[in-house]
TrEMBL record:
GO terms for cellular component: plasma membrane. PANTHER family: CYTOSINE PERMEASE, CYTOSINE TRANSPORTER CODB. It comes from the Bacteria. This is Purine-cytosine permease. Keywords: Membrane, Transmembrane, Transmembrane helix.
Length: 469
């Protein structure tokens, strides 16, 4: 049998996405595939929410602009030197690699938690798109404090958007990547135009005028906390903690020809998480100056951050289109990742159906505006929960020989449940989450300590408990 036929057979067995096999050489992709995907995924619908939310925290100009610059740099370095480095050496999905380390029974719980959290994140992106689609129907927009659906129009629009996104994601990585490449230039252009229009509306004519939009900051809006440089730095670094130090993007970069493809994450961080966040914050700065917003603030209420109206007020119909597409390009790969998580739990179920399941959960989550309106808090929690599990993979990969422990121990010892993994995660999560709650410490400050603690504990416990194979 030729090598080509062998690879085709592997793909057929794996359901077309190589969920339980290394990606073969013939299916590897160059850096351009990842550039479009990261630019599209991170210059996305949620950026229209995150930018305004930063403004509600009373952040200063220096803290926002420099904090985002350096925090996003740390995220890029994490993708390049951790995620993509391991991905091109193993070429396995996160879920299959964890199964080899943790054992099938333990990884089921992780996959379920991971898949559900990804669905909730995708749901917030569906919410974002719905705020744009609802404009022609004069739909009531969700408020910053809303948690429940506010009407039948909202429910119908969210259900339709969720169905379309789920179908695209169910077509697999090829379709996800292609959709991102098609849509990302339009979305990036929209953010740029929104930013320039907002600057004009704010009367900005010099860099000092731009800087003075935030100035020295101010008091946070009702229900928000005050952000400093360190809040912005650590939050922006760990906004995607589950994907880089949490190793979720092993499932993406396993298709990369070289580890240097990890640098393409910079397209997402600096086009999306830098330029787009600032552009969206400028849109909100325009809205805050309106009589409607000032009246709400005088009553002790935070003005709405619904992205659809913000973009529409700046650039009209193009703004509606941009917000819808931005939600799609982020929700698509997120639902794809959630589908892979569910695939690991139900390996006999096709990729199509597990992705449809993930899309259904995401759509139901999208009905509840709280996931989008509390996005800063949700993203911090989601990264904090999932990132330490990535430390298990990172510390094993780089230190197993030095520590004298067996790589992929659960697979080689035929373990269904690796207690060292569970204890390392439970202790690190429990201790640092307790610190956050008990002493009111910003959760993103504790993500890195929890990650390092989990990795070290895993090495120590594995050294003590592993037997010779």
């Amino acid at each position: 049998m030729s090598q080509f036929n062998i690879e085709e057979e592997i793909e057929e067995i794996a359901g077309g996405e190589f969920e339980r096999e290394p990606v073969p050489q013939s299916k590897l992709k160059n850096w351009k595939s990842f550039l479009g995907m990261y630019a599209g995924e991170h210059a996305a619908g949620t950026e229209f929410v995150i930018g305004p939310l930063f403004l509600t925290t009373g952040v200063s100009a220096f803290d926002l602009i420099i904090g985002l610059l350096l925090g996003n740099l740390m995220a890029v370095l994490s993708w390049r030197f951790l995620t993509s480095e391991i991905a091109v050496k193993r070429r396995l999905t996160l879920y299959y690699q964890l199964e080899k380390i943790c054992g099938k029974k333990l990884v089921i719980a992780y996959n379920l938690a991971n898949g559900i959290l990804f669905c909730f994140l995708a749901g917030s992106m569906i919410t974002v798109s719905a705020t744009a689609v609802g404009i022609p129907f004069d739909m009531e927009m969700p408020k910053l404090t809303d948690t429940m659906p506010n009407g039948i129009t909202w429910i119908v629009i969210v259900m339709i958007i969720g169905a379309v996104i789920s179908l695209i994601a169910s077509k697999g990585y090829e379709m996800v990547s292609r959709a991102a490449n098609w849509m990302s230039p339009v979305i990036v252009l929209a953010f740029l135009v929104c930013g320039f229009v907002a600057l004009q509306q704010l009367g900005v004519q010099s860099f000092s005028d731009f800087w003075n939009i935030w100035g020295d900051g101010g008091d946070p809006f009702p229900g928000q906390i005050k952000y400093t440089f360190w809040h912005v730095f650590f939050w922006s670094w760990f906004a995607n903690a589950a994907m880089h130090i949490g190793m979720s993007d092993l499932s993406v970069f396993r298709y990369a020809k070289k580890a240097s493809s990890g640098w393409t994450s910079a397209a997402g961080m600096y086009v999306g998480h830098y330029m787009a966040w600032i552009a969206a914050a400028l849109l909100y700065a325009v809205y805050i100056r309106t009589p409607e917003a000032q009246n709400l603030l005088n009553m002790g209420e935070a003005p709405s951050v619904a992205p659809g109206p913000l973009a529409y007020n700046a650039i009209g119909v193009f703004g509606i289109i941009a917000v819808v597409l931005a939600g799609w390009t982020t929700a698509n790969p997120t639902i794809y990742r959630a589908g892979l998580a569910f695939q690991a739990i139900m390996p006999k179920t096709s990729t199509f159906w597990v992705t449809i399941l993930a899309g259904t959960v995401a759509t139901l989550a999208g009905l509840f505006p709280a996931f989008a309106m509390k996005l800063l808090d949700f993203v911090a929690f989601y990264g904090f929960v999932l990132a330490p599990v990535g430390a298990i993979i990172v510390f094993e990969h780089f230190f197993h020989e030095r520590m004298g422990i067996v790589q992929d121990y659960a697979e080689k010892a035929n373990l269904q449940f690796n207690k060292s993994v569970l204890l390392a995660w439970a202790i690190s999560f429990g201790v640092f989450y307790f610190i956050s709650v008990q002493f009111d410490v910003f959760l993103s400050f504790l993500t890195l300590p929890a990650w390092i603690c989990c990795g070290i504990l895993f090495l120590i416990l594995s050294k003590r408990t592993q037997r010779t194979i």
